[in-house]
Amino acid sequence: MTPQFLDQPAHTVVGLTIRTTAPSDTIKDLWTEFTTRFSEITNLAHPSICFGVSRNFDPQTEAFDYTVCVNVTNTDTLPDGMTALELPAGPHAVFETTLTTIADTYSHILEVWLPTSDRKHTGGPIYERYDETFDHTDPASTFQICVPVQPEF
Predict the structure, then answer these.
(1) How far apart are CA 140 and CA 64, in angstroms?
(2) What does the alpha-carbon distance between residue 110 and residue 115 come to, in Å, rounded to a whole number?
(3) How crowded is residue 67: how many other Cβ atoms within 10 Å of its Cβ?
(4) What is the DSSP string of the chain?
(5) Residue 59 — left, alpha, or beta (φ > 0 → left; ψ -120 to 50 → alpha)?
(6) What is the dihedral of CA 52, 127, 12, 7, to 10 degrees?
(7) Is 81 exposed, middle or buried (0-12, 13-18, 19+ CB in 10 A)?
(8) What is the pLDDT of residues 25-48, one digit of tens each?
(9) What would the pLDDT profile of 63-103 be if each residue is shown by its tens digit?
(10) CB-based contact 99:139 (threshold 8 Å)
């Protein structure tokens, strides 16, 4: 499993956040809630692209914040209970995966690829990018996991 290295643009995103551990049905439930509340989000930049953002990982409890979100042009109007985040621009290792293989892909990234790569995680948010070709009903439908990286010195 070899990533592509891409310079990703910055993204301002708005969505719903939970504190969870993986794997967890709470993430699936959050996606369902986000889908029902999607129309509340204004100033959409790319409504056909959604993100699943993981951040604030606690290695002791393995808990992290997970945000289901969409790119917006500004955060002037924030729906009740929703969070705004900035995903920084910069180089990312980008891995293709499916819903069926997502757990294995994350394990490979964190336990195999990062420890042996000449790159290191910047500590920034790792995010899943679901574009207009993604079909959640098709187990073979692909999306990307984007890991912010920098050269190892």
Answers:
(1) 27
(2) 7
(3) 24
(4) ---EEEEEPPEEEEEEEEEE-SS-HHHHHHHHHHHHHGGG--SBS-TT-EEEEEEEEETTTTEEEEEEEEEBS--SS--TT-EEEEE--EEEEEEEEETTTHHHHHHIIIIIIHHHSSEEE-SSPEEEEE-TT--TT-TT-EEEEEEEEEE--
(5) alpha
(6) -150
(7) exposed
(8) 899 999 999 999 999 999 999 999
(9) 999 999 999 999 999 999 999 999 999 999 999 999 999 99
(10) yes
All structural domains of the chain: 4-151 (3.20.80.10)
**Closest listed residue to residue 15, CA positions, set 89, 90, 72, 95:** 72
Using alpha carbons only, give the angle 90, 21, 132 rounded to the nearest 5 degrees.
Answer: 50
